[in-house]
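Subject: two folds for Thursday's group meeting

Dear M.,

Sorry for the delay on this. The cluster queue was jammed most of the week, so I only got both jobs back this morning. I'm pasting them in the order they finished. Each block is the input sequence followed by the predicted structure tokens. Could you check whether the formatting survives your parser before we put anything on slides? The first protein is the one we discussed after the seminar.
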Amino acid sequence: MNATTFQPIEPRPAPVNTEGPVAWIKTNLMGDWKTTLSTVLIGAVLLWYVPQIINWAFITASWRPDYNACSAEGVGACWGVISEKYRIILFGRYPYEEQWRPLIATTLLTGLLVVSCMRRFWRVWLPLLWLAVLAVFFMLMYGNVGGLTQVDTDRWGGLPLTILLSSLSLVMCFPIALLVALGRRSKLPAIRSFCTIYVELIRGVPLISVLFMASFMFPLFMPQGTQIDVLLRVLVGITLFAAAYMAEVIRGGLQAIPKGQVEAAATLGLSYWQTQRKIVLPQALAMVVPGIMNNFISTFKDTSLVTIVSLYELTGALKLGVNSDANWRPYIIEGYLFIALIYFVFCFSMSRYSRWVEKQVNKSKLR
């Protein structure tokens, strides 16, 4: 028998760590020479500008509501404009001594939106809760009941108006968009043509034109002596505008459903609406969650255009409160940054909620 010689195997390299901050930096910031060069250049720009921004925004900033202190040499940001004008920014032209009413109303409506986003509260009583909260909201804002003084809708403004317009328009536009999306795929020519004309007509003009038509042109077609509140007209305009865009998002999800599933449902004897409700719509809406949320965020920000019809939401209230005061007018940029922070908090929250919904609807694909 021939003796065999032991031949040791060359040692293999240690496995590369793929977890942790160091691994993330190597993969995403220093993957190759191009990525490394971009990281170095961007890092150099940040090292140059970020300290200056921090110095302007915090270190040398003035926090006192005194415009004389803000005009001193070497003073950075003047956050005193927020301390001085925050009430008119948040509540617009609402009477000063009655601003506790929009504060409570906005807190209730915001809490309702948060509750509506939680799955444990998706019960049959949730629509009734919406009706109750909206009734309390309008009672507090409008008054003329329970000893509250009447405040007309043209004096509503600031954050309450922004949240009211965005939340109601989004709630009302969704069923309209759903029906329009189904109508554009209908086999009935009249319904399909009507839905197509509606979508193309609304999408062919900017929102500012829709608001102008709803506020100034629509009353001309009403019977003599008929008056429609400007807030209602604006709400209808934003709702119809958002529904047209959302209908196209939902239609994209409907077209992504394989035709074989619809044919299989027909073979099982399901009606059209049973097929849509149990098979098509659950899958289609799950596919377009990012697009729907993108439309929600866009509508929330587009409420700033209602200033054209003399409704002063956040942006309009800022201009109303700061531009009208010559002493604080030079510091309006700080006011815009304050409003930008409010918009960012709401929009980022909606974005994170969208990610959560995506994970929930995609659980079935992970099985």
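Second protein, same layout:
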Amino acid sequence: MPAAGSVLPIAAVTIVDRKGDEAGRQASAPLSHDGDPQTAWTTQSYATSDFGGLKAGVGLLIDLGQRSAVGTVRARLTAAGAAVDLRAADDPTADPESLPVLAAAPAAGTDVLLTLPRGTMARYVLVWLTKLPADGSGYGVGVAELGVTL
């Protein structure tokens, strides 16, 4: 078994958006973990920090390829001020709002490290954005890099 702190491979990342507004951005989801901090998956621009009142959140579902112990998730964001929740599941179709929040950063900086409770096991880890920072004339944020460790 790998040692604590070992990097877990990411099999895939998909956008989770129950309203479907972000579906057109699915092709850019791999930019969230491509090893290049200059590229990022970004949300749409919204009128307010709460997604214009249209939805509770949007996120990136990290597929680890198999059920694994998960210790931490690091996310490099393109702007500070987002609210980020971390949730986990074994079913990729689970309602994100029904999953318990395992770690949270209510006013995240650009480098977010979220630590899951000891013993957390999951195949999928959801980085769920619930509040967006100001971005030009609207509100939005990008995820430039994701990393998951044991």
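Two things I noticed about the second structure. The longest strand covers residues 58-69. The chain has a mean pLDDT of 94.

Cheers,
T.
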